[in-house]
Amino acid sequence: MKRVAILISGGGSNMVALAKSMTGDHPARPCLVLSNVPGAGGLAKAAEMGIPTAVVDHRDFKGDREAFERAMIAAIDPHAPDVIAMAGFMRILTPAFIGHYAGRMLNIHPSLLPKYRGLNTHLRAIEAGDAEAGCSVHEVTAELDGGPVLGQARVPVQPGDTPETLAARILACEHALYPAVLRRFVEGERGFLSL
């Protein structure tokens, strides 16, 4: 049985979707939910699901990213995860941290990568006049939102869409896509999945 540590910064809706999927005959189980934000809503949700939680507050490290990441590794490694799943974890990680978990890290991003890496993806898609938007699950590498894309889900951009309405439709797709890609990943499948 593979072990999955999930990193969050907020409400944890993708974490919940991942954790709920890891039941029954699923080849993995969540072993930890870690947040960089004390009081993040996802921590309470994880605790209610019986998943161990940890907090490493990045603000305690006064901008020292290496020290922050060393503290994260110290919190994560005792749980012996096979996979690190970033689910709304809003910190850019250094190559040293990514290298520590090389080949074992996934992230969900709210755009059709390689379009719109970084933030404000929904607004950028609308302003560009894109006919469709969506989400991508990718392997994490040292290049921001630049690792191999393992799956995508697409939604049409509708007339009158705002970043909020588009985000809501894409979030529903994220909750289906991420668990599907995670399962394939822990089973050793690295091919592309389209939902």
UniProtKB/TrEMBL annotation:
<comment type="pathway">
    <text>Purine metabolism; IMP biosynthesis via de novo pathway; N(2)-formyl-N(1)-(5-phospho-D-ribosyl)glycinamide from N(1)-(5-phospho-D-ribosyl)glycinamide (10-formyl THF route): step 1/1.</text>
</comment>
<dbReference type="InterPro" id="IPR002376">
    <property type="entry name" value="Formyl_transf_N"/>
</dbReference>
<dbReference type="Pfam" id="PF00551">
    <property type="entry name" value="Formyl_trans_N"/>
</dbReference>
<dbReference type="InterPro" id="IPR036477">
    <property type="entry name" value="Formyl_transf_N_sf"/>
</dbReference>
<keyword id="KW-0808">Transferase</keyword>
<feature type="active site" description="Proton donor">
    <location>
        <position position="109"/>
    </location>
</feature>
<dbReference type="GO" id="GO:0004644">
    <property type="term" value="F:phosphoribosylglycinamide formyltransferase activity"/>
</dbReference>
<dbReference type="GO" id="GO:0005829">
    <property type="term" value="C:cytosol"/>
</dbReference>
<feature type="binding site">
    <location>
        <position position="107"/>
    </location>
    <ligand>
        <name>(6R)-10-formyltetrahydrofolate</name>
    </ligand>
</feature>
<protein>
    <recommendedName>
        <fullName>Phosphoribosylglycinamide formyltransferase</fullName>
        <ecNumber>2.1.2.2</ecNumber>
    </recommendedName>
</protein>
<comment type="function">
    <text>Catalyzes the transfer of a formyl group from 10-formyltetrahydrofolate to 5-phospho-ribosyl-glycinamide (GAR), producing 5-phospho-ribosyl-N-formylglycinamide (FGAR) and tetrahydrofolate.</text>
</comment>
<feature type="site" description="Raises pKa of active site His">
    <location>
        <position position="145"/>
    </location>
</feature>
<dbReference type="InterPro" id="IPR004607">
    <property type="entry name" value="GART"/>
</dbReference>
<comment type="similarity">
    <text>Belongs to the GART family.</text>
</comment>
<keyword id="KW-0658">Purine biosynthesis</keyword>
<dbReference type="GO" id="GO:0006189">
    <property type="term" value="P:'de novo' IMP biosynthetic process"/>
</dbReference>
<feature type="binding site">
    <location>
        <position position="65"/>
    </location>
    <ligand>
        <name>(6R)-10-formyltetrahydrofolate</name>
    </ligand>
</feature>
<feature type="binding site">
    <location>
        <begin position="90"/>
        <end position="93"/>
    </location>
    <ligand>
        <name>(6R)-10-formyltetrahydrofolate</name>
    </ligand>
</feature>
<feature type="domain" description="Formyl transferase N-terminal">
    <location>
        <begin position="2"/>
        <end position="182"/>
    </location>
</feature>
<feature type="binding site">
    <location>
        <begin position="12"/>
        <end position="14"/>
    </location>
    <ligand>
        <name>N(1)-(5-phospho-beta-D-ribosyl)glycinamide</name>
    </ligand>
</feature>
<dbReference type="InterPro" id="IPR001555">
    <property type="entry name" value="GART_AS"/>
</dbReference>
